[in-house]
Amino acid sequence: MVLAHVAIGYSPQKSVLPYAFLTAARETDGSQPQLAVPDSFLFEDAGYVAFHSDTTKPDRTSLYFRSSPQGTASHGAADNNAFVFVSQGEDILINSGFYGSWTHEHFAQWTRHTMSKNALTMQLASGRSGVGQSQHFKDGVFQNTIYDSAESKGKLVNYYAGTGADRWRIATGDATAAYRYFDEGTGAWQPLLDSAIRTVAYLKGATDNDPAVVFIYDYAHSEQPRTWELNFHSLTAPVVTGNSIRIKTANRRTGAEFFTCIDYHGPKGSFTGITKLPDTKDIPEPMPSNYVVTQWHTRFRQSAESKYFYALTVIRENCPADPMARSPVGVSLPKNARIEATVDGKNIVFNQGRVDF
């Protein structure tokens, strides 16, 4: 099957509430029926996609993806083409940052930024890193705050949710219009990128107890060479081994610990460091509050500048405790944007906005 910027459409599910994809499954004593919630859902107008292993189970796997026409207007963050990943009901890869108030320094200078999400950023020739969407440019300098506007937008261009034995769940976002900066001096938007495409593909386990595999494919182009960056955020400190990071998580219900592996495949680079939030001088402190928890920011940075960036990030549930254990996912990287992956007898090919599976 092929997805190549297909028209998006879906049949509304009766008796499904709009917040259903965010709420935990309702547990009952059997006297009341479970809320019927599909395990995949598209909110096209808002630019959200949600894929779940089983919405009736609190210990489910969930993948959320956003590429929204609403941009950074109002309380929107500069997070088009960003994703969030949950495994066994536990937050693994999160949207980092804290909200103290609309005008609070940390919220304005970190939480709303692209670099605070699981998203693509870049380092410019000037050396400034973490540059992303809806940047505010004033007096020849990129500001620490983003520019509020619906003009800095993304859009969903592919959506597929298999049923029955078909375990693929796929969505593609085009955030090219979001990777721009607003020049306050001229009053005009200027492009940072000529293309910013991301596809997320979720392969459900064959049974409820089998681990899932998630593929995050990135394709970007700029006429000006960039040093490309991928950002990851977690609630526990990852351990770096080569081009992979491992996150250990304890299940709050059972106490059992499990690992999630995140493997990078693409142009040469390295995980440049792990930063603890909010305990860093580079990121404004959040407003003191009981809800503030430790978060970790990990960034992969390409070794050299280039005009094109294409890479595949593979997320594996319940991966082995041994960091040297071989991954069951095979990835082929030819010298172009086409990337092929194979796992569990399933094959998928990414090529810019096209997906074959």
Helix and strand arrangement:
Elements: E1 2-4, E2 40-43, E3 48-52, E4 62-66, E5 82-87, E6 90-93, H1 105-111, E7 120-123, E8 135-138, E9 141-146, E10 155-161, E11 168-174, E12 180-183, E13 188-191, E14 195-203, E15 213-234, E16 239-241, E17 244-250, E18 257-265, E19 269-277, E20 295-302, E21 306-316, E22 330-332, E23 338-343, E24 346-351, E25 354-356
Parallel strand pairs: 8-12
Antiparallel strand pairs: 1-25, 2-3, 3-4, 4-5, 5-6, 7-15, 8-9, 10-11, 11-14, 12-13, 14-15, 15-20, 15-21, 16-17, 17-18, 18-21, 19-20, 22-23, 23-24, 24-25
Q: How would you characterize the overall build of this protein?
A:
This protein has 357 residues and is an all-beta fold. The chain contains one helix and 25 strands.
SS class = mainly beta
State the total count of DSSP E strands: 25
How many helices does DSSP assign? 1
The share of residues in extended strands comes to 35-45%
CA-based shape: globular
Q: What does the average pLDDT come to?
A: 87
Helix content percent band: under 10%
- SSE sequence, one letter per element: EEEEEEHEEEEEEEEEEEEEEEEEEE
What is the CA-CA span between the terminal residues?
Answer: 5 Å
**Rg from Cα:** 20 Å
pLDDT < 50 runs, ≥5 residues? 9-19
Major sheet size, sense and barrel closure: 11 strands, antiparallel
